[in-house]
Amino acid sequence: QEFKAIFQYNYQDKTLSLMEECRLHEVFTELENAIKLLSGQTGYQIDMIQFFALAFYLSGHEIPSRWRFSNKEKAIIEKLMALLFVTSNDQFNEMIVYTYGLDVCLLADQLNRLINPLNQQTQRIVDLYQQMPIHKTCDLAFIGDHILQLGVLDDARIIGDIIDDLIYQVITLQIPNEFTRLKEYTLTRWINPLIKKDSLHE
Question: For residue 154, what are the CA distances in angstroms to 72, 140, 157, 158?
Answer without folding.
Answer: 33, 19, 9, 8
